Amino acid sequence: MPFARTVRDAGAMNVIEVSDLTKRYxxxxxxxxxxxxxxxxxxxxxxxxxxxxKTTTVESIAGLRTPDSGTIRVLGLDPHRDRQRLRTLVGVxxxxxxxxxxxxxxxxxxxxxxxxxxxADPHTLMDELGLGEKRDxxxxxxxGGQKQRLSIALALVGQPRIAVLDELSTGLDPQARRDxxxxxxxxxxxxxxxxxxxxxxxxxxxxxxxxxxxxxGRVIALDTPAGVVSLVEPEQRLxxxxxxxxxxxLLTDLPEVRSVQRAGQTLVxxxxxxxxxxxxxxxxxxxxxxxxxxxxxxxxDDAYLALTGNRPARFAKELS
Length: 320
What we know:
The chain is α/β, with parallel strands linked by helices.
């Protein structure tokens, strides 16, 4: 089932702990007091618009940037001071990572494997990630999905306990994107904790146990995807074609209905509570059938747009 969740162990340890992280560039705070933790075995999603502080936070966790203040612990270690010790424990694949055009899949994996004392077998990894037939193919000749498979393989070749994956499915066609999602889920099945940066709400809803939503350098929501959705008003939308004409006021007078809109022959009724029961009962009293009835509820995409300021304020609950 695509939206199934792994039950989190109440006794699971935190493998990443970020406390009051701050990083400034001149007068601008790219990250401003960010705090969160990631449990062992989780897929933890980081969401937010461009410039929200996601990349700076992830690069600080990976030891690629030094924060101005705050603390980070990865497996109990400081990622800046203990970067060499963490190198074999954390596999990082950032969005901008590229390989030489002429380097083959086999050469890339063997090169990366040489950086570790106890790497995974590159040939086994290629076969497990569906790259066996492409082992002698140059990087420039790989499809987008194949490049992402290789990115995941490079993040795993050191047999890490944590994998940091940044925007791996951006720009892929739907089938390649779903193949990449299957691979990310397979990483968790290996016992690896995944820190996943994504712009895709469908990806976060499918994969993440919990998500942190960033805005203006701060975490503004931290919960399961369903928990984040609950931060916006639980509106529903009903779309249907009435079998006979009906006046809008018959529906707008219902306490559950906030608005009624018409799009050609289709009615779109927005409201809360037992909206479908109230609307269908009213239609039945007037001998009207709701043809092609569809029920739409708030999604993570709706919540994200409300929380990051791209929807009218009435969609978001008070966050203070």
